[in-house]
C-alpha cells in the first residue's frame, strides 16, 4: 500500500514539476528580473574620430568584435534577414555584428514592462517618452553634450522638432531621421479621365467638386461617386482641414492659419464640414455606406470604376490605376490641386517627413556604452547611411562624381518581377532603409530610384509629384509638443468622454436626421465637457 | 422474416417540422462552411476580379500563382516545419503529462487526493498572467527555445480533469485484478488503463494538437529568431501587414500590397494539415470500449 501511494504521488509530482502546474510566478521573480539582461559580448573602447586604422576607410571601428542585438518589428512587405548585405558590410567596416530580434507591438510592451530589453530597441515616440525617464535607456543628450555624437548633433541642431521628443530636456533614444523624403498628404483623387470625357472642368472649389460629382452621378446612376476607407472619423480626419475646420485624430488639430491648437468639432467652422458632407450624402454623391467603409471597400470601388473620387492619402491613386485600366483602358486616377473651401481658403497639410516617429534606444546596461554610442553616431554619418540604405559599394551601389550613391542597374534588375514589389525585394535582400536598421534612413528616395531603374516609374507618378510639389496649399506639419504626465492624463480623460459623445452625433448631421442649426447644442456640450481645455493644454505645452 | 417497411405515419405537421429543421441545419452548415469555401475560391482566383469584388462562389480567372508564391517562400517552409515539430513534441508532452497527473487523482485510494485536486483546479481560476509567466520562462532560460512553447502549457487543467473523470469510470476491479497478477502502478497505468482509454487519448491528442497548431501568442512572446517562428506567427504577420505606415508618401507601403489571394493561400496552407488529422483520429473515438472486461 505504502509503495503504491509513493508511486502515485511520484507520478503526480513529476507531472506537476514538468508543467509548473501551480499558479505561475510569484512577485519576487518580477523584482529580480533585471539581472537577466541580454548579454552582449565584450568590446573595448575605440575612439570614434581617430581610429582610421589599417582597414582604413571607416570613421568608426570597434577594437574587438562586438555583437549587438536589435529588437525591431517587421513588415511582411519587407522581411528582415539575418546578416543581409548591409549587416555584413557593417561588420566588415565597424567590427559590429547586428543580430535581429523580431517581434511586434505586444512583445515590445512586454519587454519594456519586464525590463528585458536587448541592446538596442526600436520603439515609437510614445514608448520613448514613457519609459525613457525610468532610466532603462542611455541618455543620448549626455553623449551629445560631451561631443561624442557629432553626426547626430548636426541633425539635432538642424531639426528643431527634435526638442519636442525630449522629456525634461533629455533625449532618450536615437531618432530615425528621414533622408530626402518626398512629402505628400491627404488630397482629392479623381477620375480625371472621366471628367474630360464628359466635358466637366477640373473643379476649382469644393462646391464645384460636388457639382462635378453630381453630374457624374446623373450620367452613371449606379455609381457611388465618393467613397472612403475607414468610416466617418477617417472621413472627418481627411477632409475637415481642407474645408476650413479640422479634426486631427480625435478632434484636436493644429490650425496653421490661426497658429494654434483648436478642438475642431467644438467650433462654428465645423458646421461647414458637416453641411458639406450632408449635401454630398443627400445628392447621392457620397457613398451611402460611407460610415462603414474599409480599405477593401476603397480598393474595390476605385479599381472597379464604381467610385470616382476619394479624399485620403493621395498616393493611393496610383495603386488603383493599373487595375482600373483593366475595366476602362482610359481610366486614370490623379490628384487635383486642393480646391478652395467656402471660407475662400485653399489649405492642406503634408505628412511629417523628417522624423518618421521611431527611435532606436540603447539599453542602459549595455556593455561598453561609449563604443555603442559611437557606433550609433556612425550610423548617422554619410558612410553609415549609405551602407544602411544602399548596401555594399560595388555590389549594389556606386558613387557618382559628386559622391552621391546610386543603385547599380544590373543588381536591381534581378528583382524586377519580385513580390510584393521590386523595391521591397531589394530592400529585404540588402537589409536596408527605413524598415530595417537605419538611423538616417531613406524611403521614397530609394524607392523612386529603383522604380526609375526598372522602368516601373510612370508618367502618372511624375505628374502626381509635380502637382503635389507645385501646390502651394500644403503646409509642412509641426510636431505635437510633449505633455507632462498630468497633462497627458487630463487630455486622455477629456478626449475619451468627448469622443464618445461626439461620435454619436456626426452621422446624424451628415445623414440629415438633425438640422445643422442644432449642432450649436453639440458645440455647447463639447465646450462644457472640456473641448477648449484640451486645446489650451496643447497651446500651453507648445509655448514652452 | 420479411423486413417491415417503416410505416409512414408521420403527420403533415411533423413533416413540415422536419423540413424546417433540415433547412435550418443546411443554412447553419452553409454559414459555417462558406467563409472557408470563399477563402479557397479567392485563393485560386486572379487579383483583378478579387479587387472588383466579383469573386463570391465561383473562382474567376483560375490560377495557382498564389500557391506558387507560397511554396517558393522559404520562410513559410521553415515555419511549417517548426509548427509540425512544436505540435508533435508539444502534444506528446501534453498527453503523457496529463495522463500521469490524471491517473493518480482518479484513484480513490490516493493519499491527499482532495488536497491535490483542489490545488490543480485552482490554477484554472487563478493564473500567473502574462508578465510573471514571461519572467519565469526568461529566468529558466527557456526564451527562444522550443521548450518555451511546449513546457509552460504542458497540462491543460481542464483537459486533465476530463481525463481524470474518464479514468474514474474504469472499474476498480480491473486494477485490483492487475495487482493480483503482480503489476505495479506504472505497469497498470501503461498496460491496463491507457489501452482502455483510447477514446480519451484520441480526444486529448486532438485538443492539444489543434491548440498547438493554432497558437501564436506564446511563440510570438517567447521566440526571438525568425528561424524558430511557427506558421501561425508568420500568418499573422502576413494578414496584419499593410496596416502599418499609413501616413507617409511611401505609396504602396500604405496599402495591403500583399495580394489577397496570397494571404488566402497561406490561410489554406495553414488549416489543411490540421484538418486532415481529424479523420485519422476519428477511428479511435469508438475503440477501446470495455466489452466484457468484467464478468460476474
Largest sheet of chain B: none
Main sheet summary of chain A: 5 strands, mixed
Oligomerization: heterodimer
| CATH-assigned fold name of the largest domain in chain B | MetI-like fold
What structural class is derived from the secondary structure elements of chain A?
alpha/beta
- The CATH architecture of the largest domain in chain B can be named as Orthogonal Bundle
Query: How many separate domains of chain A?
Result: 2
Helix content of chain A: 40-55%
| Strand order of the biggest β-sheet of chain A | 2-1-3-12-4
Structural class of chain B comes to: mainly alpha
Give the amount of beta strand of chain B, in percent.
under 5%
Please provide a brief summary of the model.
Chain A is of the alpha/beta class.
Helices and strands in order:
The complex is a heterodimer of chains A (about 550) and B (about 300).
Chain A: H1 2-19, H2 27-31, E1 66-73, H3 85-94, E2 96-103, H4 105-113, E3 120-124, H5 125-131, H6 140-145, H7 150-158, E4 174-175, E5 177-178, E6 186-191, H8 192-197, H9 206-219, H10 231-239, E7 252-255, E8 260-263, H11 269-282, H12 295-303, E9 309-313, H13 317-327, E10 333-335, E11 348-349, E12 358-362, H14 369-379, H15 382-390, E13 397-399, E14 405-407, H16 409-413, H17 422-430, E15 440-441, H18 444-454, H19 459-470, E16 474-475, H20 485-503, H21 506-510, H22 519-528, H23 531-543
Parallel strand pairs in A: 1-2, 1-3, 5-15, 11-16
Antiparallel strand pairs in A: 3-12, 4-12, 6-9, 6-10, 7-8, 13-14
Chain B: H1 12-43, H2 47-51, H3 65-72, H4 74-106, H5 113-125, H6 130-139, H7 147-150, H8 157-168, H9 172-180, H10 185-196, H11 198-214, H12 217-222, H13 231-240, H14 260-286
Helix pairs in contact in B: 1-14, 3-14, 4-8, 4-11, 8-11, 9-10, 11-14, 13-14
Amino acid at each position: 500500500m505504502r509503495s503504491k501511494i509513493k508511486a502515485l504521488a511520484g507520478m503526480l509530482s513529476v507531472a506537476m514539476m514538468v508543467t509548473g502546474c501551480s499558479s505561475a510566478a510569484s512577485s519576487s521573480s518580477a523584482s529580480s528580473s533585471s539581472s537577466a539582461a541580454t548579454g552582449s559580448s565584450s568590446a573595448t573602447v575605440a575612439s570614434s574620430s581617430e581610429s582610421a586604422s589599417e582597414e582604413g576607410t571607416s570613421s568608426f571601428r570597434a577594437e574587438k568584435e562586438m555583437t549587438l542585438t536589435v529588437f525591431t518589428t517587421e513588415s511582411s512587405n519587407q522581411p528582415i534577414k539575418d546578416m543581409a548585405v548591409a549587416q555584413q558590410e557593417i561588420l566588415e567596416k565597424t567590427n559590429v555584428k547586428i543580430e535581429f530580434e523580431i517581434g511586434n507591438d505586444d512583445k515590445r510592451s512586454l519587454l519594456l514592462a519586464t525590463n528585458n530589453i536587448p541592446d538596442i530597441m526600436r520603439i515609437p515616440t510614445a514608448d520613448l517618452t514613457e519609459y525613457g525617464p525610468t532610466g532603462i535607456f542611455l541618455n543620448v543628450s549626455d553623449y551629445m553634450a560631451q561631443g561624442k555624437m557629432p553626426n547626430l548633433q548636426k541633425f539635432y541642431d538642424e531639426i528643431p522638432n527634435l526638442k519636442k521628443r525630449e522629456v525634461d530636456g533629455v533625449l532618450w533614444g536615437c531618432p530615425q531621421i528621414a533622408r530626402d523624403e518626398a512629402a505628400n498628404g491627404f488630397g482629392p483623387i479623381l477620375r480625371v479621365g472621366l471628367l474630360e470625357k464628359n466635358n466637366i472642368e477640373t473643379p476649382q472649389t469644393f462646391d464645384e467638386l460636388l457639382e462635378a460629382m453630381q453630374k457624374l452621378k446623373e450620367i452613371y446612376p449606379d455609381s457611388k461617386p465618393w467613397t472612403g476607407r475607414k468610416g466617418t472619423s477617417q472621413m472627418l480626419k481627411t477632409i475637415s482641414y481642407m474645408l476650413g475646420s479640422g479634426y486631427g485624430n480625435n478632434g484636436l488639430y493644429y490650425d496653421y492659419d490661426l497658429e494654434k491648437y483648436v478642438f475642431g468639432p467644438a467650433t462654428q467652422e465645423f458646421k461647414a464640414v458637416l453641411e458639406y458632407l450632408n449635401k454630398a450624402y443627400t445628392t447621392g454623391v457620397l457613398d451611402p455606406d460611407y460610415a462603414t467603409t474599409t480599405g477593401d471597400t476603397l480598393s474595390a470601388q476605385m479599381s472597379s470604376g464604381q467610385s470616382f473620387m476619394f479624399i485620403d492619402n493621395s498616393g493611393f491613386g496610383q495603386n488603383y490605376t493599373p487595375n482600373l485600366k483593366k475595366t476602362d483602358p482610359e481610366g486614370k486616377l490623379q490628384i487635383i490641386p486642393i480646391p478652395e473651401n467656402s471660407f475662400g481658403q485653399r489649405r492642406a497639410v503634408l505628412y511629417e517627413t523628417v522624423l518618421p516617429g521611431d527611435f532606436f534606444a540603447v539599453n542602459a546596461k549595455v556593455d561598453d556604452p561609449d563604443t555603442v554610442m559611437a557606433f550609433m553616431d556612425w550610423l548617422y554619418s554619410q558612410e553609415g547611411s549609405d551602407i544602411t540604405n544602399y548596401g555594399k559599394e560595388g555590389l549594389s551601389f556606386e558613387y557618382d562624381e559628386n559622391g552621391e550613391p546610386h543603385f547599380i542597374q544590373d543588381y536591381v534588375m534581378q528583382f524586377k518581377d519580385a513580390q510584393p514589389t521590386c523595391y521591397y525585394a531589394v530592400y529585404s535582400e540588402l537589409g536596408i532603409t527605413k524598415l530595417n536598421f537605419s538611423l538616417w534612413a531613406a524611403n521614397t528616395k530609394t524607392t523612386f530610384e529603383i522604380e526609375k531603374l526598372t522602368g516601373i516609374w510612370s508618367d502618372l507618378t511624375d505628374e502626381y509629384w509635380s502637382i503635389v510639389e507645385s501646390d502651394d496649399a500644403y503646409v509642412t506639419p509641426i510636431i505635437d509638443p510633449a505633455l507632462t504626465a498630468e497633462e497627458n492624463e487630463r487630455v486622455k480623460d477629456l478626449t475619451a468622454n468627448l469622443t464618445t459623445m461626439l461620435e454619436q452625433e456626426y452621422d446624424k448631421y451628415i445623414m440629415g436626421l438633425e438640422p445643422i442649426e442644432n449642432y450649436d447644442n453639440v458645440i455647447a456640450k463639447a465646450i462644457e465637457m472640456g473641448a477648449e481645455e484640451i486645446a489650451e493644454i496643447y497651446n500651453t505645452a507648445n509655448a514652452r | 422474416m420479411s423486413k417491415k417497411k417503416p410505416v409512414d405515419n408521420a403527420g403533415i405537421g411533423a413533416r413540415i417540422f422536419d423540413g424546417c429543421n433540415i433547412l435550418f441545419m443546411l443554412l447553419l452548415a452553409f454559414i459555417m462552411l462558406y467563409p472557408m469555401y470563399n477563402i479557397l475560391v479567392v485563393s485560386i482566383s486572379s487579383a483583378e476580379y478579387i479587387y472588383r469584388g466579383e469573386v463570391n462562389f465561383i473562382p474567376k480567372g483560375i490560377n495557382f500563382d498564389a500557391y506558387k508564391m507560397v511554396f517558393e517562400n522559404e520562410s513559410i517552409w521553415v515555419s511549417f516545419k517548426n509548427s509540425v515539430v512544436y505540435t508533435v513534441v508539444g502534444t506528446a508532452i501534453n498527453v503523457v503529462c496529463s495522463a500521469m497527473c490524471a491517473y493518480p487523482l482518479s484513484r480513490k485510494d490516493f493519499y491527499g487526493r482532495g488536497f491535490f485536486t483542489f490545488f490543480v483546479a485552482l490554477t484554472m481560476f487563478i493564473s500567473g498572467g502574462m508578465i510573471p509567466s514571461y519572467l519565469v520562462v526568461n529566468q529558466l532560460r527557456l526564451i527562444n527555445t522550443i521548450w518555451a512553447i511546449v513546457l509552460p502549457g504542458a497540462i491543460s487543467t481542464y483537459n486533465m480533469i476530463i481525463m481524470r473523470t474518464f479514468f474514474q469510470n474504469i472499474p476498480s476491479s480491473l486494477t485490483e485484478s492487475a495487482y493480483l497478477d503482480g503489476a505495479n502502478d506504472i505497469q497498470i497505468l501503461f498496460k491496463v488503463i491507457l489501452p482502455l482509454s483510447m477514446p480519451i487519448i484520441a480526444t486529448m491528442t486532438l485538443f492539444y494538437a489543434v491548440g498547438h497548431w493554432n497558437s501564436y501568442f506564446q511563440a510570438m512572446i517567447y521566440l526571438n529568431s525568425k528561424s524558430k517562428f511557427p506558421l501561425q506567427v508568420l500568418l499573422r504577420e502576413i494578414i496584419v501587414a499593410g496596416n502599418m505606415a499609413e501616413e507617409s508618401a511611401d505609396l504602396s507601403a500604405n496599402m495591403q500590397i500583399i495580394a489577397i489571394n496570397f494571404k488566402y493561400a497561406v490561410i489554406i496552407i495553414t488549416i489543411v494539415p490540421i484538418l486532415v488529422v481529424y479523420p485519422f483520429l476519428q477511428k479511435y473515438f469508438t475503440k477501446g470500449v470495455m466489452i466484457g472486461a468484467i464478468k460476474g
